[in-house]
Amino acid sequence: VIFLLANLFFMLLVIWVIHLSNFSLDLFQKPLDITRLLVRMGNIYITILALCSFQFWLGLCFRNFIIPTAVGFALWLAGMMMTFEFKSKLIDFFPYSFQTFAFMPNAQLKMTQVVWTSLGYTALFLLLGFLDFRRRRLAA
């Protein structure tokens, strides 16, 4: 949530700086579509949930931050390559490529399916993390 609020703040800051540098654009006189902005931010939040829950589970498994960070970076890089370089059909089911759907105009038709898939992955990874954590607590 802090990421989304910071994103909105810095976006407003950039708009203000652009407005000050080029008055002819007249950015503050254009209408702001709040509902579209909130829907987009909600979609971004939901599509990132699967990624965050998997990273959380990795953190519980390895009990440090270096391995989950390295695995997360490698999977994120693979997701970006699958999306932009290889144009794979598997990006609809790969959690590390979900966040790109909110910014690609030609992928907006798949957004509902990606949101539900992300929520499903989130539930699955949180359940696996809970079961793994409970198993470790009972064994210790």
What is this entry, summarized?
This protein has 140 residues and is mainly α. Helix content is 70%, strand content 0%.
Description of the structure:
This protein has 140 residues and is an all-alpha fold. Helices cover 70% and strands 0% of the residues. α2 crosses α3 and α2 runs parallel beside α4.
Topology:
Layout (H helix, E strand, L loop, with lengths): L1 H20 L12 H29 L3 H20 L25 H29 L1
Cα distance spanning the termini? 34 Å
Radius of gyration: 19 Å
| Average of per-residue pLDDT values | 90
Q: What general outline do the C-alpha atoms trace?
A: elongated
Return the string of H and E elements. Answer: HHHH
Structural class: mainly alpha
